[in-house]
Amino acid sequence: MTSFPLRPQRLGVNIDHVATVRNARGGSDPDPVRAALLAQAAGADGITAHLREDRRHIRDRDLSRLRAELSIPLNMEMAATEEMVAIATSLRPHACCLVPERREEVTTEGGLDVAAQETVLSSRVARLRDAGIRVSLFIDPDAEQIAAATRIGAAVVELHTGAYAEAGDEEGQFRELARLARGATLAASMGLEVHAGHGLTYDNVTPVAARPEIVELNIGHFLIGQAIFDGLPAVIRHMKGLMAHARVRPQENADPQSDDDGE
Ligand SMILES: CC(=O)[C@@H](O)[C@H](O)COP(=O)(O)O
Ligand SMILES: NCC(=O)COP(=O)(O)O
């Protein structure tokens, strides 16, 4: 089958876990804003930072500094609470991604249940939109959630890739990838911009990066961890290289059973 190079896909670098390391000692190093500026210089297309309700990593002051110092888009991840909507509408980042949050979780465990909370979410989405913020919803790649995201006026959905990333075997990975592909196709056909993220690494990024409808990946934990060994600029350049390579022959690379691992 003939294949055509796709449009480049954006890489949003999530710098939360620089703040996790900083907070471990309670001081000011390492500075997540410095990491964001380094990521920007290395070719990141955006910076993602999640202001959790418990402030376990990113803090309010980090966000205001990011907003002031970055020249690439800032994507603020947040729970859909009154407190967070008030912070976001005052900060006015380029985008807000609404995510589900449970205080006791180690990381975001599933997608936002948009279908179950349409009324409250639609008024919060409207307030963010009225403040000029592009609103994204972090959801599982399910038809019910995608339809609900459209109904409440989100511009973007970020498909949760955690189940794909954590699938223990090839069969599970194949099943989750097929689910992501169906979700991406459906969301794009409904006029939503499609992003994806969570748990992506050098080893599993290629089939996701090859999906033509997915125009942005948000990646954090792996990049920050790998930067300990290789340095943040080299890690960002390598990840962007894998993403670009995946889109040269998207049909082949979208198949997780392909021999080509994207290296
Ligand atoms: C929403 C999401 O998928 C994660 O990127 C999260 O923002 C990373 O931070 P945690 O590790 O605190 O979940
Ligand atoms: N929204 C996903 C994200 O920002 C990064 O997730 P992870 O790579 O830290 O798992």
3D structure, described in words:
By secondary structure, the protein is of the alpha/beta class. It has a single domain (10-248), classed as TIM Barrel (Alpha-Beta Barrel), CATH 3.20.20.70. Helices cover 46% and strands 16% of the residues. The chain has helices spanning 16-25, 32-42, 60-69, 82-91, 118-130, 143-151, 162-166, 170-189, 205-209, 221-230, 232-246, 250-253, and strands at 10-14, 46-50, 74-78, 95-98, 134-139, 156-160, 193-197, 214-219. It has an eight-stranded parallel beta barrel, surrounded by eight helices. Helix 9 links the parallel strand 7 and strand 8. Helix 2 packs parallel to helix 3, helix 2 crosses helix 11 and helix 10 (221-230) crosses helix 11 (232-246). Residues 259-263 have low confidence and may be disordered. Residues 14, 16, 50, 52, 57, 77, 99, 107-108, 138, 198, 220 line the site of 1-deoxy-D-xylulose-5-phosphate.
Through-space gap between termini: 22 Å
Sketch the topology as an H/E string, one letter per element. EHHEHEHEHEHEHHEHEHHH
Rg over CA atoms? 17 Å
E-strand count: 8
Q: Return the CATH class.
A: Alpha Beta
Label the structural class: alpha/beta
Rough outline: globular
What is the name of the CATH topology? TIM Barrel
The mean pLDDT is 94
The name of the CATH architecture is Alpha-Beta Barrel
The CATH homologous superfamily name equals Aldolase class I
Uncertain regions spanning at least 5 consecutive residues: 259-263
How large is the count of helical segments?
A: 12
Helix content: 40-55%
Biggest sheet descriptor: 8 strands, parallel, barrel
Name the strands of the widest sheet in spatial order: 1-2-3-4-5-6-7-8
